[in-house]
Amino acid sequence: PGAKGRVGLDGKVVPDLPGIDITPAPGFVVKTKEAGNAGGGEAGRKVFLNLCSHEALGEPGMKKKLDEEGKEVEGWNIPIGIGPARACSDQKGAANCVVYDCVVNPKVVESAKEDDSG
CA-to-CA distance for 106 and 53, rounded, in angstroms? Predict the structure, then answer.
């Protein structure tokens, strides 16, 4: 409620930021931990990634680029939309956690669910 507009990279509402409104389909949650203090985070803090999907995001594909030595390498390119960080609690009630809402193309979620490599 309140301010209208899009959320910028800094998490603040920007009234005229271009974009589209979507309602993503649920996917799954990835649980991990922060490795260090990069970006002002806390080492060891739990991080949850809510992976959802919508066909408005581009499909994943292979992309070529140059590595640090100038050699051409090929790797996956996965377009992703990421919302601002939000504080949250885990199932045990620990409040020192953060969650990010992430939206990808449905093919990414389908591929992840089919992958049994762990």
Answer: 5
Q: How far is it, in rounded angstroms, from Cα 90 to Cα 48?
A: 9
Distance CA 99, CA 34 (A): 12
Locate 21 and state its tokens.
Answer: 């409104």
Model pTM? 0.72
* Residue with the two structure tokens 């949250």: 88
How far is it, in rounded angstroms, from Cα 94 to Cα 72?
Answer: 45
Stretch (H or E) spanning 65: strand 61-66
Q: Check whether 2 has a pLDDT greater than 50.
A: no
Q: What is the C-alpha to C-alpha distance for residues 111 and 27, in angstroms, rounded to an integer?
A: 11
Q: Indicate the pairing of strand 61-66 with strand 72-77.
A: antiparallel
Which residue type, as a one-letter code, is found at position 26? P
Each residue of 13-61: pLDDT tens digit? 677 767 778 899 999 999 999 887 656 667 788 999 999 999 999 999 9
Burial degree of 18 (CB within 10 A; 0-12, 13-18, 19+): exposed
